[in-house]
Amino acid sequence: MDSDHESDDRPPASASGSGAEDPYIYTLQSNRRATSPKILRDFVACVLNSTGQEELVDAATVCTSELATNAYLHAEGDSLMLRVLIEPPSLRVLVYDACTALPTAARLPAPDHLDGRGLGLVAALSDAWGTADGDPTGRYAKGVWFELAVKGV
Questions:
Q1: Checking DSSP bridges between strand 90-97 and strand 79-87, what pairing results, if any?
Q2: Mind listing the pLDDT tens digit for each residue in 18-71?
Q3: Mean per-residue pLDDT for 82-102?
Q4: What is the SS3 assignment for 88-119?
Q5: 146 HSE (CA, 13 A, CB side)
Q6: Which of 19, 20, 27, 108 minimizes the number of CB atoms within 10 Å of its CB?
Q7: Model confidence, pTM
Q8: CA dist., res. 54 & res. 68, Å (int)
Q9: Coil, helix or strand for 79?
């Protein structure tokens, strides 16, 4: 449940050494709209179900939904980009937006507040989360990511 900032969006190198398969990398661009969290989480579920990582769907979709919702509510610009990288031993999901401000996990909000728990959920459900510099195309200012351990693909 570590949080850190990294300069790229690649998962750690696979420890399997020679003969390792190429990673699965999927990208989806979306308008920044109220429908974005659902579209992005459904895309992640489809990727995981299609690549034999069904056991990660629940945690990954909740975390994706939280990151996408934060980007929709608090970011700038008119679009988001989602990247899904599966390279055993890790799944890394990144949500890019045009806002330069880095997210911070807030203290637990008052019980009567309906928001402020998203990054806490991501931290609780993922093995790690953090931020990354802008995407490789230079269109987005930052990415927020989480990782989950995967079985061999």
A1: antiparallel
A2: 445 789 999 999 999 999 999 999 999 999 999 999 999 999 999 999 999 999
A3: 92
A4: CCEEEEEEEECCCCCCCCCCCCCCCCCCCCHH
A5: 25
A6: 19
A7: 0.79
A8: 21
A9: strand
